[in-house]
Amino acid sequence: MTTTQAQLIERSNRLGSDPRNTNYAGGNTSAKGTETDPVTGQDVELLWVKGSGGDLGTLTEKGLAVLRLDRMRALVDVYPGVDREDEMVAAFDYCLHGKGGAAPSIDTAMHGLVDAAHVDHLHPDSGIAIATSAEGESLTKEIYGDKVVWVPWRRPGFQLGLDIAAIKDANPQAVGCILGGHGITAWGDTSEESEANSLWMIETAAAYIEEHSVAEPFGPELPGYGALPEDERRSKAAALFPTIRSIASQDSYDVNGRAMVGHFTDADVVLEFLAREKHVPLAELGTSCPDHFLRTKVKPLVLDLPADADVEASIARLRELHEAYRDDYRSYYERNAVSTGSTTSWPAIRGADPLIVLVPGVGMFSFGKDKQTARVAGEFYVNAINVMRGAEGLSTYAPIDESEKFRIEYWALEEAKLQRMPKPKALAGRVALVTGAASGIGKAVATRLAAEGAVVAIADLDLDKAQATAAEMAGRAGADVAIGVQADVSDEAAVQRAMDATVLAFGGVDLVVNNAGLSLSRSLLETTEADWDLQHDVMAKGSFLVAKAAAKVMVEQRLGGDIVYISSKNSLFAGPNNVAYGAAKADQAHQVRLLAAELGEHQIRVNGVNPDGVVQGSGIFAGGWGANRAAVYGVEEKDLGKFYAQRTILKREVLPDHIANAVFALVGPDLTHTTGLHVPVDAGVAAAFLR
Ligand SMILES: NC(=O)c1ccc[n+]([C@@H]2O[C@H](COP(=O)([O-])OP(=O)(O)OC[C@H]3O[C@@H](n4cnc5c(N)ncnc54)[C@H](O)[C@@H]3O)[C@@H](O)[C@H]2O)c1
Ligand SMILES: [Zn+2]
Hints:
Blueprint (H helix, E strand, L loop, with lengths): L2 H14 L11 E9 L6 E8 L13 E5 H10 L8 H6 L3 E6 L6 H6 L4 E5 L2 H7 L4 H9 L3 E4 L6 H13 L5 E4 L3 E6 L2 H22 L17 H19 L12 E5 L2 H7 L4 H7 L7 H4 L4 E2 L8 H29 L16 E4 L3 E6 L2 H24 L7 H8 L2 H9 L10 E5 L4 H12 L3 E6 L2 H12 L7 E5 L5 H15 L4 E4 L14 H29 L3 E6 L12 H21 L4 E8 L7 H15 L6 H8 L8 H12 L10 E4 L10
Parallel strand pairs: 6-7, 10-11, 13-14, 13-16, 14-15, 16-17, 17-18, 18-19
Antiparallel strand pairs: 1-2, 1-5, 2-3, 3-4, 5-8, 7-8, 9-12, 11-12
């Protein structure tokens, strides 16, 4: 890597890691420099610029596109005009140097055409507040004098690059510009100078807003719309989330049960906004920055009830507002797809459900195809709130016109990006909860479900163990993939708390695995009442309680669901010293049939897996049961796995992963028409054959 590239990456990481400077994955940076062309041995002028996608905060060399400046600049001579500016993106491919690096983005022109060695294009809340103010142009003069120039709104592309280049030529004293309706661009002769100019523009705007803003940019308080106390708003959020998720998922829900994953925040900035009079008209005006529409839709759905409205009334109203939102979105699509009048044929409508739902007193619910997308959508709306506060503080918030928003949301180039996205994994968009998942079979099941794209709650007795398992499974993706929750499944209130925590983390629940269990191998005469109760409490009652809490959420979601019981060969097999465990397992097995029959009308499927002899990784075996079983069968404990294998028809040892495979088969795309089934995973035990 050359010094120029290294400096560019360091500068980008510094700028991108402070959320005041730019939104997630928003903005781009570049540097120009000279290298020796390996083909001619001559000097060649190059442009390194952040490529399409990716985030400045974590940009690496791989994320940079590398273009030849002479060829890039030559594009000006063949540019066919603004109506066909999109064609220039394909032309960038003919300007690449060497292998070219990352795919050049739409903003490449701005970086290449502006005559400055270093350029930063950013989306800071403070800068966008000026950019979306009705008096943005005069404010720019007032705030920055002639050092920053106003560029009227134009959709990102080749023409915007030409506009900015012309403005820089005409204003040699300027260090940057405010891009109307959009963001900022700053430049410098050195990397330090560009960074300093960017930060100066951002901080100057922020300080100006701070000093000159009216006292109540969002208007006076709306009586009854203030934040509920924390406990109350969390429990109301958990009670509403399944319904809100069903609203957000109506068009994306498919036969594989794929829905939107949710994210909830009750950050002060959101609650403050919703507590004020102007939140209604401002939310209606929608977001502004071009990065936002695909992630947040043009506008959110806002519940028009006060904070203390009860859950039932809120749900009823949300469902009405959803219908209105869908009608409104469909007419927005039709109005704009038709009224543009050009020969453009627009991509098909992408679903009419909201991605952001605001509930006064409670908070914001955001949605995406996975947890990270849902979280970022929420972050974007927080950006939008900050922008609206700044703009209303100084002037009037005036985002770009609806038709321009539409042109961006349904831009052919964005559609092409969406089409290029890899096919979603089998369980993408599904929220799983696995009980007893901090060990053995449960951990293998949770790991497999996550590998197939599900987000997973690891529920177990000990919170630390559950969280450690989640962290181990999710790796760097962290809470975007798995969370740990504490739950003693035999305690109804604890089960409800775990369910609420899962719902608040991901929006609901679609796939529950009743796996928690324990085994005390004792003869009838040695089995105490407490032994009996404990095993029945954890396995029979525990799975009943978990199924009950989950089914409530699933019914509200209207997105079907799966409940899988990890029962046992011992639910059928009459082995020695097993009365309490075997009877509890038989109870679980019959719950499968009963609930399959009862919940089918809600598209909830209930199935079971009957494992046997899973010694490796099993806490049950390590905690004494293994020694006991070894003694019963007269083998050494370490050989128990092999002993079980020899007992089977296939003579194979059963591992936790084999159970996980069966769970995936039951909940994945292949057995969509199966319910009430038990799958033995025991390497073949004739005495436990079903029927
Ligand atoms: N290992 C086998 O051969 C085998 C065979 C048939 C069935 N099973 C069943 O598979 C399931 C998992 O067994 P494993 O072998 O992985 O055992 P394990 O001990 O490794 O895992 C069981 C987990 O359940 C948790 N747990 C126990 N009581 C709980 C409670 N009240 N609330 C929440 N979590 C609780 C434990 O903390 C542990 O993490 C059990 O239901 C077991 O009966 C296992
Ligand atoms: Zn931009």
